[in-house]
Amino acid sequence: PGRNQPGEHRLLLLLQAPRVARGRSRLAVISRATGARTAWYTLNSTGHVGGLATTSKYLWVAQNGKLWRYSRSKLTGGSGTALTADKGFNVSASSWAVAYGETVWVGSFGTWGSGGSCPSSSQRPRMYGYAVSDAGNLTYRASYVIPPRTQGAALTSGKFVFSTSCGRDNDSLLWVGPAANFGSGSWRKIVAPNMSEGMVIAN
C-alpha cells in the first residue's frame, strides 16, 4: 500500500497481485473517506510486484531488482487504463518499497536467523534509500540492517516501523525503533495478526 505525500490525505493506493503467473498487477485507488474504490489501473509489467511508493511527482513500483517510475499525472485517466512506466532503475532490493519525502526506500525479505517454519538465511536483510531528483532520477543515499521477514515499512522523522511475517499460521511482528540499524538502540516489538505486509502512516 501507499498514500499521497504529507498534506494529501484523500486517497490510498493498493496493489492487487495477478491470479496467474504472467498476469498483470492492478493498482486500486481507494477513497479514505468512504473506503470505496474510485479507480483502478493495470501496470505494464507482469507477475508479482514487490512494493509501491509515491513521491511528489512519481509513483514507484518495485519488482525484480528494479524501481519502475510512473508519472503521477497518469492517475487521472479512467478506470481500466494501462499505466506504462517511463523509466526503470536497478536497485539493490525490491521485496517492498516505501517513500519518505523525496527518498524511496526498498528492502529485502531475508529470513536471517528466523528458524521455525521459515527457512533461515546467512545474509542479514537490508533496506536501501534512493534520493529522487527534480528530474525523477535516483541517487543512492544510505543502507540499514532491518529485521528478518520484513514485508513492508513505514518511516517517520525519527523512527522506523517494520512489518514482519512468514507463514499463514504464525503471528506477525511489528518492530518500532530508531532510524538506525536494527538491533541498535531500543526497539519495541508488537504482536500482530498473521500475514502482515505493507504499512502506511496516515494523519
What distinguishing features does this structure have?
203 residues, mainly beta, five-stranded mixed β-sheet, globular, disordered N terminus
Q: Can you offer a commentary on this structure?
A:
The protein is mainly β and 203 residues long. It is 0% helix and 48% strand. It is built from no helices and 17 strands. The chain has a 5-stranded mixed sheet with strand order 1-2-3-4-8, with no helix packed on it. A 4-stranded antiparallel sheet has the order 5-6-7-9, with no helix packed on it. The protein is globular. The two termini are 15 Å apart. The N terminus is likely disordered.
Short characterization:
The protein contains no helices and 17 strands.
Order of helices and strands: EEEEEEEEEEEEEEEEE
Principal-axes shape call: globular
What portion of residues is helical? under 10%
Widest sheet, order of strands: 1-2-3-4-8
Give the distance, in angstroms, between the N- and C-terminal Cα atoms: 15 Å
Q: How many strands, which pairing sense, and closed or not: the largest β-sheet?
A: 5 strands, mixed
Average pLDDT rating: 84
Fraction of residues in β-strands: over 45%
- Uncertain residue segments: 2-9
Radius of gyration: 16 Å
Number of distinct beta strands: 17
Structural class: mainly beta
- Please give the count of helices: 0
